[in-house]
């Protein structure tokens, strides 16, 4: 998301995080960063396959993801934790219901169009597409919206992703998300609240 810090402006022309600085080279946008790192460090082929059609399937999911899963899942965190933290006021329950309905539609498409009866999004092996998806889908879980509970196919896919990554690393990577409610207890600088509250509200529109 957007950042008002001077440091973010030096690393990312878009003044957004995440951002990458690799020597004199800087890069914004999480998907671009993932692809750059996979190419630079010559990661195992299953993450971003050399096979042109498998790679295209990863690209297809990543393109769809931004306007669907990413458009809904993180909003659960903003509604239940971040916006109340910065504004001091809870949002109406109708707002969360609206977001959850949109997310439910996206999850149905995710299961039927991308996951189908495969172990992972592009087949029998985990890829960057699965990593991008799971990070987003753990955000509702962190604020008490267990989207996996009544979706056995989605739940089994999550289990396979955990196993492929390694459970310890998986929960280490998602530790901040799963403990996001603890932010409700911290004190926020009033000036920072004033700066960020309108930005967060705008992101929900």
From TrEMBL:
Keyword set includes Cytoplasm: yes
Keywords associated with the record: Cytoplasm, Transferase
A Gene Ontology cellular-component term: cytoplasm
Alphabetical list of SUPFAM superfamilies matching this protein: GST C-terminal domain-like (SSF47616), Thioredoxin-like (SSF52833)
CDD domains: GST_C_Theta
Sequence ranges assigned to domain GST C-terminal in this UniProt record: 51-192
UniProt catalytic activity: RX + glutathione = an S-substituted glutathione + a halide anion + H(+)
Domain GST N-terminal: 1-45
InterPro entries hit by this protein: Glutathione-S-Trfase_C-like, Glutathione-S-Trfase_C_sf, Glutathione_S-Trfase, Glutathione_S-Trfase_N, GST_C, GST_C_Theta, GST_Theta, Thioredoxin-like_sf
Keyword Cytoplasm on entry: yes
Primary location class: cytoplasm
GO biological process: glutathione metabolic process
GO molecular function, one term: glutathione transferase activity
Family: Belongs to the GST superfamily. Theta family.
Name of this chain's protein: glutathione transferase
Name of encoding gene: Gstt1_0
């Amino acid at each position: 998301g957007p950042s008002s810090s001077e440091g973010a402006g030096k690393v990312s022309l878009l003044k957004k995080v995440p951002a990458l600085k690799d020597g004199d080279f800087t890069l914004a946008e999480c998907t671009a960063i993932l692809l750059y790192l996979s190419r630079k460090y010559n990661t195992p082929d299953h993450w971003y396959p050399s096979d042109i059609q498998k790679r295209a399937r990863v690209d297809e999911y990543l393109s769809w993801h931004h306007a669907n899963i990413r458009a809904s899942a993180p909003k659960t965190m903003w509604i239940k934790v971040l916006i109340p933290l910065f504004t001091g006021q809870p949002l109406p329950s109708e707002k969360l219901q609206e977001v959850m309905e949109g997310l439910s539609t996206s999850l149905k498409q995710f299961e039927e169009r991308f996951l189908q009866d495969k172990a992972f999004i592009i087949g029998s092996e985990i890829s960057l597409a699965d990593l991008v998806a799971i990070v987003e889908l753990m955000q509702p879980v962190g604020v008490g919206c267990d989207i996996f509970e009544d979706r056995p196919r989605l739940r089994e896919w999550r289990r396979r992703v955990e196993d492929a990554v390694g459970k310890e690393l998986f929960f280490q990577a998602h530790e901040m998300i799963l403990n996001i409610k603890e932010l409700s207890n911290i004190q926020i600088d009033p000036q920072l609240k004033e700066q960020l509250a309108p930005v967060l509200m705008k992101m929900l529109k």
